[in-house]
Amino acid sequence: MKKWSSILANLAVSYISIVLVIVLLLCSAFYVYFSGAYKEELRNRNQLVLANAAQTIETSVLQRVKQIYLDLSLNKTADVRAFADASFASSPSKALELQEVLKSKVTGNSDIIHAVHLYSPGQNRMISSLYGLVFNVDQGNSYPYFADWVGGMRSNKQNSLWTPVRLVPQDIFSSLSGGKGEALLTYAHGYPYQASGANSELIIAIDVKESAINAILADKLSLSYRGTFVLDAYGNPINDHGQEASAMSAAYSASIFKTILAKEKAGSFNDSINGVQQFVSYQAFNSVDWKLYSAVPSHLFYQKSIFVQKLVLGIGIAAIAIGILLSAIFARATYRPIKRLAGKIRGLSGHMTDPSGNEFRLIDSAFSRLNDKVSSLEETLQANSLAIRHNVVLNLLNNSYTREKLAEELQFLSIDREYPSYCCMIVHSGEALAKLDFRNLQYMMYGIINQLEALSLPDARIIAQELPDKKIAVLLFSERNEDELLEHLSRYVLAAGQQHVQMQLQLSWGSPVSDIMDVHQSYKEAVTLMKYGYFYPESSILKDIGLLSRESSIEEIPQPLLIRFREKLHARQLPETLSAVEQLVSHMREGHYSADYCHYIMANTVFVFSECLKSVRYQPPAGGALDYYHQYEKKHDIFVFRDWLVEAITTYMEQMEKRNNDRSTSSVEAAKQYILGNLSQDLSLDAVAAKAFISPKYLSKLFKEETGVTYTEYVTSSRMERAKELIESNTMTIEQVAGEVGYATVAYFIKKFKEAYGCTPGSYLRHSALEA
């Protein structure tokens, strides 16, 4: 046999072994799972059948018997209570009438009851649907057939009881043995309803046919009927299956005792009865303290699960056959790439090898040559260790490592032990590095990093790396967590930046952590603190952890301040506009607002300014661009932003003032003065144009060019501004304010005011009062 075939054989054996193991494991699992699941399903189904049988007995027998008692005790035509009187014996007609009532109940329910008896403990007499009027019940041959419920009720503290089954002959007054009889169990209940048996005036007893209960059990539990008992609270069978009942109940006594002790209303268990494994289940009744007990031989109960076992076995055999076939296919398919690889190696080797040689040896030789090349590659990696080191630091800061992976990568950082404290610092240079070209930027970055890592600190280790956003991350691994060490390092970095690279640096510290896996948390805090360096450029070291709480703040800058900036800008009131800008900057520095929200407000402010310029077709001097938003993004701190915005607004207003002087501003100003002085009068375009001695169309055009808004918007804005002043003075009602600014209806005035300021006049008044 050729050597290549031995490889194929090994592959085939391996695949077949795997198939056999997997199939055997799966078959075992399926056998255990499905067999167990089907057995559980059989047990659940049996429990449902048992519960159904108990419920049927409840509704078809027990509840009907109790209803018969209620019908008799509440019968108005024949007063059963009169039977307890001593005078009742002297009235045969009443006895006959009462017996007829009892007989009618028996006739109407003959399928479940045999007889109904009415017993008076005080008079020791009984009237029966079957035996008529009986005196001195506890004397004579008939008493044994009544003794169980008569004697039981005399000493019973409850108001009712059920007796076990007993055989009652047709003639209970004769002492002759033999003859036909009826298996009965009796339900006895005291009268009145709530009276206990010992205190009852009367006792109503209903003889129930055992056959009625057995018929239900035989119908519902055909398989387990022979081993089924209705047990009372003491484990005594309520029903009787004939002569063998005593022997069967004795054999089942152990499992019956276990059933009685069970606290659950329903359940099942396996037990050995007379050396035979039995499946025992039970179900409690709801209305009486009985349990339905059923025992079935296990081999009969679980015989349906044998099909499942055979099915699993058949599937397992089929799976093994298919697996062997697939093993042969996979072995050949796996061998093909090995053969092709061996051929490829022979072709690359440049010389012929022994065709009968083992392909594995050929591949091993090829891997030996590959190992030499890997060694050369490792030397290349060593040369690129700086880049690898950079990636390790970034991954550590971004929490991209598992603990096991980090332990492998720490060798690139030359970290061979753990430290009790880890902390991260961010170094930011503002715009100093942003102005450098790529070569000088890299040179400057590496200069700062080398100086930091060359710093010698007692019991500490420093690792510094460049971040993608031109900042530097400094990791401090220390033997102790001391603020003095952090302060020393901060002062050194600031001094080195000023002395060696002539840059004003800004630092932020994250909180120290005790586990290197958590250093990303310190880095995250440092990055967050650096975001607030934009708003506090005068602070060289940002370490106030209180700033972190601003990140989750939902506070907002008061809307009136933002509205005031927009209004004063459109009104070209330079001092008020610049004051609004200054107030915005103060709010962002002194308020408890998040950094992102503050940047959003600044961007929105630039947007409002840009839209204002576009509305009046403003052209910057010297042909500059209107891309103010792009200019805003380049501002590295809030003071630079403020100065830039103030300068831009000042230039804009000066240019617009100059342009206004070159055009017919007198007419527009005259119109403005008339509007402001006559807000309560007719301010239609035609009326005001007549006052300014120009055409309405030209006046509308001038308003748009000079103010950036339409004539109607200007009138509405002037009226709203005046209305706001009147409301803030709090000397007039809303109706008076509406009339003062020219609105005939208060509702329309409120609508326009809400469109202008985002709230109703009443809400604005309350807000102004609160601010005051």
Can you offer a commentary on this structure?
The protein is 55% helix and 13% strand. The chain is α+β, with helices and mostly antiparallel strands. It folds into five domains: 75-212, 2-Layer Sandwich (Beta-Lactamase), CATH 3.30.450; 221-301, 2-Layer Sandwich (Beta-Lactamase), CATH 3.30.450.20; 385-551, Alpha-Beta Plaits (2-Layer Sandwich), CATH 3.30.70.270; 560-655; 665-771, Arc Repressor Mutant, subunit A, CATH 1.10.10. The strands form three sheets. Strands 1, 2, 3, 4, 5, 6 and 7 form a seven-stranded antiparallel sheet that branches. Strands 13-14-12-15-16 form a five-stranded mixed sheet, sandwiched between helices. β1 (113-120) and β2 (125-128) form a beta hairpin. α1 runs antiparallel to α8 (305-349). The longest helix has 71 residues, at 3-73. It is flat, with a radius of gyration of 52 Å. The N and C termini lie far apart (105 Å).
Name some characteristics of this structure.
single chain; 772 residues; alpha+beta; Beta-Lactamase; Alpha-Beta Plaits; 5 domains; seven-stranded antiparallel sheet; five-stranded mixed sheet; disordered N terminus; transcription
Count of all domains? 5
Mean pLDDT: 79
Task: Output the CATH homologous superfamily of the largest domain.
Answer: Reverse transcriptase/Diguanylate cyclase domain
Note the overall shape.
Answer: flat
Largest sheet: 7 strands, antiparallel
Keywords: DNA-binding, Membrane, Transcription, Transcription regulation, Transmembrane, Transmembrane helix
GO molecular function, one term: sequence-specific DNA binding
Domain HTH araC/xylS-type: 669-767
Protein name: HTH araC/xylS-type domain-containing protein
